[in-house]
């Protein structure tokens, strides 16, 4: 019986020393995008409502935009998982920046829920980039698209960037789902 007590004491000591070797904060900071594999219907409805309201606003304006930022000759499924995460992070950076612009009070209210959701997703993606691939270099496809995004930010009007981001939100959400799958997606 004393032998069993010694073994239990040894196991407790070993557990405590391993707990000190792996801080709890390090375990919490792992990358988990699984909640984006299947988007919640009320989030999708909020995005749809916002997009429809924005399209109605667009009908009343005379914006002429040339940006084809979201018309890519490749599919996100062709990218590696770290590239997917970097792509969606950049897309969500643009979307959240555009949704934070001053707007009509009715539209400001409609965009609150999608903005909150997209901001949280962007922060989760940033955590993944920081923990899983801090030194990852983007592929040629992604690097070219990121350069195209930077050029668009410098050359396009804010209104055109806003329209491009909002009108392509469902593509971004699909890209987010694909990044969350961590395997082949379609």
TrEMBL record:
Alphabetic keyword roster: Antiviral defense, Cytokine, Secreted, Signal
What InterPro entries does this protein's entry cite? Answer: IFN-lambda_sf, INF_lambda
Entry's Pfam families?
IL28A (PF15177)
Give any single GO term for biological process: positive regulation of immune response
Q: Can the keyword Signal be found in this entry's annotation?
A: yes
GO (cellular component) term, any one: extracellular space
| Any GO molecular function | cytokine activity
Question: Where's it found, cell-wise?
Answer: Secreted
Signal peptide (from-to): 1-21
Family, as annotated: Belongs to the lambda interferon family.
The protein here is known as IFNL3 protein
